[in-house]
Every structure is written in C-alpha cells, then in structure tokens.
Amino acid sequence: MEQEKQRLSIDVARLYYQSEYSQEQIAKRLGISRPTVSRLLQYAKDQGYVTIRIADPIEDVNELSKRLKDKYKLDEVQVAFSPLSDYEVSIQHIGRKAAAYLYEIIKDGDIIGVTWGRTMYTLASQLKAKTTQGVEVVQLKGGVSHSQINTYAPEIVDLFAKAYHTYARYLPLPVIFDTPELKQMVEQDRHIRRIIELGKQSNIAIFTVGTVDDDALLFRLGYLGSEEKAELQRNAVGDICSRFFDTKGQICNHEIDSRTVGISLNDLRKKEKTVLVAGGQKKVAAIKAAFAGGYANTLITDQFTAKALLE
To answer: Nearest to residue 301, comparing CAs of 66, 111, 95, 13?
Structure first.
C-alpha cells in the first residue's frame, strides 16, 4: 500500500511540476479527488521526491560581485544579470548596468576618458543624462581608420558629452601609425598634444578589452600586417586601448606599442577609477590579464563571465 502511494505521488508530481497540469486536470486524469492530489503533492515534497529551488538573480549576482572583488582585489564589481550567455544579449545588460553605475559616480569636475568599440557604444547608447558642472569627456586613443568597419569612436564621445552636458574632445588620428617616427611627429602638434594630455589628466577611464581572435575588431581595421597579427596571436591574450599584453599584463610587442596613439597602460593604471566593461567567454583571458597588470580597479560584467573568472 505504501509503495502504491509513493508511485502515485511521483506520478502526480510529474504531471504537476513537469507537465504543468492543474490539480483539477490531474484529478480527472487519474480518477482521484482534488484534495487527494493536493495531499499527494505535499507527501512527495515531505518524502524528498520533489525539491523546490528558487533562483534569485539579484542574490546570485551580489554574491558573485563580492567573490570577484575579493579574488582580484578590486574596488568595485557590478555584475549584470543576463538571461542568456549570448554575447549580443549580454553586452546589452552589461551596458545598462555600466550606464547606471556611471550615473551614480560621475560628479562635477570629473574628466572622463573613453575608448571605442561595440561594447563601449552599447554602454554609451544607454547613458542617462545627468546635470553636472565642469565635466570633460576625452577620447583616450586614436579612432580614425580607412576601413569601412565602424569603431563608433566619434559617436561614443558624442554620447558621453551629451549625457553630461559638455563638449566632446576627439583624438582624430589613426590608433596605430606605420612608424614610430611618424607617430611622434604628429603628436608634436599642439592641438593633438593637448588632447593626449587631457587623456592623461582624466581621473575616470572607461574601457573594454579586445581579444586576439581572427575576428577581433582591431585586426579587422587593417592597421596590422599578417606577420604582426600572427606574432600577436602567439604571445598576446588581448588589448586595452589598442595596447597588446600577455597573460601577466605585460606589453608583448614594444615596436607596435611605440606606434600606438593614446594613453599608455602605465598612465592608465594611475587613475582614480579605471572601469573595465566587458563580458563573454572569449574575453575571460584578457580580463584576467588586465587584472594581473593592475589596469582596472572596477569591473562591470555579466554573471556568466563572472563565474568563468572565478573558476
């Protein structure tokens, strides 16, 4: 008799929890009363045949934030909840979280340095306007390319400037020159020098990381030759501000670095707030290396990337 009750309670539980039948439908299907169905469901829970787990995304991301902060010795971690691990979906939620974070922290007199790319554009598109005084927005690296691929460089600076009621300061140059000498000559221009200096003075830097995969944006823009690309893919794990680094966060090609226009990684790590906005399995190695190099003290990511970073 007890075995029959056990079997019936499991059948009722399957219909109710897995097939989503109502208690009344189960009663009609099995030829029993509705109160009996209710008692069998309770019996199944009491016996441990059914366990109910509530996944609270807010509680989960808060715990992930704390663990990441402790593991990588960061000042701040914000983990966005994304319903899917799909990159396109995740960066929308990461961008929204980052925009909300910036709304809270930006204050009068801040100098905000920004980079470019799809993640940064997704963030910039979701910025909420805030009334501020004396805020400046400056591009941290060159963004001009002969490629038809969009870097969103001017759009991002414009969106940041609009959100904080200020003027956009562009760096209207290629990010990587053909030779160090040519780059140094262009940087002698007093207007260009002023923008680069403003980038160095920025107290808040907001940036993402790139990868060294074949489809990486920086590779597709045509700045680098095939041999340079192959060499970087052997030795680098990613880039910040178009400066490539290895797993320890160290610059891995000084010749390319000497041709790169914009803030150096050494200057970047000195800032009050260095906000890394990134997500996706492809970027995990680059994010870890960025922490190893001390380039970010704040991380904004999604829960899937957060879990990968904790493994």
So the answer is: 95
